[in-house]
Amino acid sequence: MDKKLKETILNPILKGNPITVLVLGICSSLAVTVQLKGAIVMALSVIIVTGLSSLVCSLLRNTIPNRVRIIVQLVVVALMVILVDQILKAGEGTYAIDKQLSVYIGLIITNCIVMGRIEAFALGNKPIPSLLDGLANGVGYGLILVIVAFFRELLGSGTLFGFQVLPAGYIPNNLVILPPFALILLGCIIWVHRAIDKDLQEN
Amino acid sequence: MNTNSNAYTVIYTTVIVVIVAALLAFVAAKLGPAQEANTKAETLRQMMSAAQIKPTDELYSTKNAGILQLYADNIEEAYTIGLDGQKNGTLSTTKDKIELIDKLKPQNKAIKAGSGATLPVYVFKSGVIVVPIYGAGLWGPIWGYIAFNPDCRTIAGAYFDHESETPGLGAKIKDEAWFREKFAGKTVEFSSETPFNLSKNAEATGASNAVDAITGATMTSKGLGEALNVWFKAYEKHLGEAQTTNAEEE
Predict the structure, then answer these.
(1) Is B62 left (phi over 0), alpha (psi -120 to 50) or beta?
(2) What is the nearest CA distance from B163 to chain A, expressed in angstroms?
(3) Contact flag A79-B38 (C-beta cutoff 8 Å)
(4) Residue of B nearest to A172 (CA)
(5) pLDDT per residue of chain B (250 residues) written in tens, 0 to 9
(6) pTM for this structure?
């Protein structure tokens, strides 16, 4: 694999993580990280949507009229999101999760990561790198989501994937379930991330 | 070609939108039946959970086909009533074409308007009668199913669901088994102005038609209490009269 392609894939997951470095997609990382299961489905949905939207927009990039490019991107993203939502609703096993995530799946449309990557990458690059960039950014987003959800489900409900892991005497912390705690956790993750990667530190 | 001309822009966007619309219409038509089957099974699970046909966990781990079979095996009859308490329709209970009134919002409107309601009543072979309730929570609609014992007065079980209540607070009406279990054994005073009392410290009054509201979920509890009372009043003529008939027989 050539170096540039490798960079495209690894950068969004580590150094250019959409949540901790670009600080995009914060809203949904507060909303869907109460339970691990929901966070994972959300992460997969975003990975698919960012990947496919970037791919389609990259294929269309030379035909899109510059003045309405945002609108065209929005139509493509909306199409992908509705498709994901409809498919989740139709699957017998995924219906319950879709119900739980309810509005948040629809709100992937407003996730800045999707539009941000199309604007910044897909419109200026070939389809395959664009697809990889979209997928990798989705993975970078999903990674943070899962980390946050791990701590919130563990401390907020004493469970992981719905199974009791902390002893029965543990009193669930209600603050952890509420969105503000996700912000605190995100702050901690950003702190750790910057402490490890000195390049990210600002003077 | 000049991709920035007005004509190109207009034609381009039109074509894109038409293609996307066609694609979505196709997908919606293809997946529609599967989605409806899921919704129907979900409604049946909630009803049978309220009616104590099987434990809730077991119902949720049963596949859709098994749920339809279970319902068909356990249901005695299903019909709809108007606000006058009189029967105004029947619902099929055959396994392959189970009919439900699962769109409760229009029914809620009809109750408020005072006419045009077709409120469902599901009578199970165990004698348990299940009726729905529907109302507004804090963020979105909340609904549920209440199962009555054959005396049409004592609650046998309940199940509540919501669209977007706060996880950990309002969502407890669905997530916490202890909350719905509290309804079992309570009674509904149909003839009273407020047939059921869901509020702070309600249980301390010792009344048999009272359940405590959920701490930290004031608006959801208030909405649920209202939903219960509005719908119980709507069923008053049907269930309340059955109550008096039963009393006479005794």
Answers:
(1) beta
(2) 7
(3) no
(4) B168
(5) 677 889 999 999 999 999 999 999 999 999 999 999 999 999 999 999 999 998 888 888 888 889 999 999 999 999 999 988 888 889 988 888 888 888 899 999 999 998 888 999 999 999 999 999 999 999 899 999 999 999 888 999 999 999 888 777 888 898 888 899 989 989 988 888 889 998 888 888 888 888 998 888 889 999 999 999 999 999 988 887 765 555 554 4
(6) 0.77
